[in-house]
Amino acid sequence: MKKILVGAITIGIILGSGSSFAAADELDSISKNENTIQSISASTTKSITTNQFNKVYAAMKKYEGTPYKYGGNSPKTGFDCSGLMQWGYGTQGIKLPRTAQDQYNKTTRIARSALQPG
Hints:
Structural class: mainly alpha
């Protein structure tokens, strides 16, 4: 029972954190096998600047500690992971799909050597 509880809490923390970073060993595995990694394309018509990303990050950081809310997508109701991403990028006029699956479906493969912050 204790293992189940610890596992559930761990999964909740991961899902509620709003981050989508892979562990270093996962990145190494990806780079060895395919030399590519997935990256969300913020928009199909424009790129996000470092300044915009910093503003997105600052907007989302204000709500650190906000309780996780399944299906939540606003500061008033709380956030789930994809809702936080959609809302945060929306503060800069960048539209993302609502669900994590739809966000993933909009990803494009890029070479590991082309990775950049944001």
